[in-house]
UniProtKB/TrEMBL annotation, chain B:
One of its GO terms (molecular function) is arsenite transmembrane transporter activity. The chain crosses the membrane at residues 6-25, 34-53, 65-91, 103-132, 144-163, 184-204, 229-247, 254-274, 280-299, 311-333, 339-356, 368-393, 405-426. Belongs to the ArsB family. Belongs to the CitM (TC 2.A.11) transporter family. It is found in: Cell membrane. Residues 26-370 form the Citrate transporter-like domain. The keyword Cell membrane applies. GO terms for biological process: response to arsenic-containing substance. Keywords: Arsenical resistance, Cell membrane, Membrane, Transmembrane, Transmembrane helix, Transport. One of its GO terms (cellular component) is plasma membrane. This is Citrate transporter-like domain-containing protein. InterPro entries: Arsenical_pump_ArsB (IPR000802), Cit_transptr-like_dom (IPR004680). It is a multi-pass membrane protein.
Length: 173, 431
């Protein structure tokens, strides 16, 4: 059975999932939906708040609230993702929801090892809106350039299996 | 210069100062900051570096500032309860027109306004979690926006006395008039925030997708904006701000305005808002009051021990030209704020600045505060507070990658500080 790990980040969630589901063959495949609660924003908040005098108590309380909020937002996305995916998968296909906490790129790789993934599917935020500029006076033409996020670049670099990268928006023709 | 003042008493004074700061930052077993400060005062009394007159003197010196802080804490707690910050954050989203870069700029502007008017504590403790929740609802990477909040809390805290406790302490004691201070600081404030925005747009360029994915699904009307409590709070807040600026203009103390306004908003929260007094009291950082008084007293002690004389000589020796004076004061303050935390360092700088020639005080004050206020954003890297935070986070099972913070603040803080100090010198030369 092929294990497909789909990283859910909220980025155009339903469009992204429709594309994931339509581009792959789901016979004899299991779908693992992963959301990662990013601890870096929480760390940055805690660092700033914790260094204010006499504020550490409130900072800790706020940090817990924020952590819970992040986990809850992720659970909501996973729920939405599962609802979108279930009717489109063949009957009996397995769907699993996973939530990790940490640095997203590292957790995606960790989850891939954990489940023995055959494929990781990621979404990339950027869509190149501009048409290709005319060729410069020197050298080859300069094609539109995407700025991939550090998360995507890390996963591509470290993945133990194939990676499918889906861009967020439709390309402008 | 430093040699002759480093006697046994000076060393003991320094040891007490460092121990107090170490304990206040590390807070072993959740000990609140007031205790080490009180312990430090007792130790310096025993060493003969403090007299009873110092205790009273420090209380008299800090009373106005502490009353002001108390009023502003009541005010900001009530504003939060009324949903003012959540409303402002949702406004920032709507005004971004679906662009993640514009949203980053808007978060900076919102953070700078909140910091300038209500202080950096409010931006970090209240606004940052609100922005986090708002950005989560948008389903975009929250990291750049969180950094924007925590950084603008420092870089945007230059302009008014109330923007930062360090400003209050120094301006109040040196009797720099409100408007003179704000006039000198306006240009550096704008320069610092603009530099910070520009650097962040670059640093986070690959984390800011061109369009906000969920912008269309974000609710366009904020829930709290309709309630009576919300409206009453905004009206009272408007009056308080107007009164604060008028009091500043008239060179009157600010604390009666803050205290009255804070009390009025607390009453509104308890009546119209239906909040429990206990909830409102929970918004006050009680240990801050004994901590600030204790630190002010301790700094008097190390002043008696001759410790501040060395720093004073270093700074005032370069006070002849504005450029040297600004650079060395700003750098010393920024460095000290990172090593010792900014409140104690502000009090040390205060002791230094008291001895400066009268005509130089506004400029030196401004450069010291630029360093004291912007510098601590670097604290997210190198200082004791950071080390302890990282250990704490690790114990909670959260692995915080220190290098990630280093990458952002090492690039940002020096450039922002240089921008602010350059704006200060430029403003001075143009005058």
């Amino acid at each position: 059975m092929r294990r497909v790990l789909v990283a859910v980040s909220g980025l155009l969630l339903s469009e992204f999932l429709h594309r994931v589901l339509s581009q792959l063959d789901w016979a004899d495949a299991a779908l693992y939906l992963l959301h990662v609660v990013d601890t870096r924003p929480l760390g940055e908040f805690g660092l700033a708040a914790g260094s204010l005098p006499a504020r550490a108590g409130r900072a800790a309380a706020r940090l817990r609230e924020m952590g819970a909020l992040g986990a809850e937002a992720g659970q909501r996305m996973l729920g939405e993702a599962e609802t979108t995916a279930t009717p489109r998968l063949p009957a009996g296909a397995a769907i699993r929801r996973m939530q990790h906490t940490g640095v997203p790129e590292q957790e995606i790789i960790a989850a891939a090892y954990e489940i023995g993934a055959d494929l990781i599917v990621l979404g990339a935020a950027e869509d190149p809106a501009e048409p290709p500029p005319p060729a410069g006076p020197h050298g080859p033409p300069r094609f539109p350039h995407r700025q991939l996020s550090p998360t995507v670049r890390y996963v591509v670099d470290h993945a133990p299996c194939d990676v499918l990268l889906l861009y967020a928006g439709p390309r402008k023709e | 210069m430093i040699g002759p003042v480093l006697g046994a008493q000076t060393l003991l004074g320094l040891a007490v100062f460092l121990a107090v700061i170490g304990l206040a930052i590390s807070r072993p077993k959740g000990l609140n900051e007031a205790w080490p400060a009180a312990g430090g005062v007792a130790a310096l009394l025993a060493l003969g570096l403090l007299s009873r007159a110092d205790l009273v003197g420090a209380a008299r010196e800090t009373a106005g500032v502490l009353l002001f802080l108390f009023g502003m804490m009541l005010l900001s707690t009530a504003l939060e309860m009324a949903g003012v910050f959540a409303w402002a954050a949702s406004y920032a989203v709507r005004a971004s027109g679906g662009s993640s870069r514009r949203l980053l700029v808007n978060v900076f502007i919102l953070g700078a306004v909140v910091t300038a008017l209500l202080s950096l504590d409010v931006t970090v403790i209240i606004l940052t979690p609100v922005v986090y929740a708002t950005v989560l609802a948008l389903r975009v990477d929250p990291l750049p926006y969180l950094y924007a909040c925590t950084f603008v809390a420092n870089t945007g805290s230059l302009v008014f006395p109330m923007s930062n406790l360090t400003n209050l302490l120094i301006v109040d004691r040196l009797r720099v008039p409100f408007w003179q201070f704000s006039r000198i600081m306006a240009f550096p404030e704008v320069a610092a925030v603009a530099a910070n925005v520009a650097i962040f747009l670059w640093v986070f360029r690959d984390r800011l997708p061109r369009m906000l994915p969920a912008a269309t699904s974000f609710p366009t009307t904020a829930g709290p904006a309709g309630t009576r409590f919300f409206k009453v709070s905004l009206v009272i807040f408007g009056f308080v701000l107007a009164a604060l600026f008028l009091a500043g203009l008239a060179e009157r103390p600010l604390w009666p305005v803050a205290l009255t306004g804070g009390a009025a908003l607390a009453v509104a929260a308890a009546t119209t808002g239906g909040r429990e007094p206990r909830e409102i009291a929970a918004g006050i950082s009680w240990p801050l009051f004994p901590f600030v008084w204790g630190m002010a007293t301790i700094v008097r002690g190390i002043e008696h021990a001759g410790l501040t004389t060395g720093i004073a000589g270093l700074i005032l020796g370069h006070a002849a030209g504005p450029l040297g004076a600004v650079a060395i004061t700003g750098a010393t303050a920024a460095l000290g704020a990172n090593v010792f935390n900014n409140i104690p360092m502000a009090l040390v700088m205060l002791a230094v600045l008291v001895g400066a020639p009268r005509a130089r005080i506004p400029l030196l004050t401004a450069s010291a505060l630029a360093g004291l206020n912007i510098g601590p954003a670097l604290t997210t890297v190198g200082s004791l507070a950071t080390m302890l935070w990282l250990t704490f986070a690790r114990r909670q099972g959260v692995e915080v990658p220190a290098l990630e913070y280093l990458r952002v603040s090492v690039v940002t803080v020096p450039l922002v500080l240089v921008a602010a100090l350059a704006a200060l010198v430029l403003g001075e030369l143009l005058r």
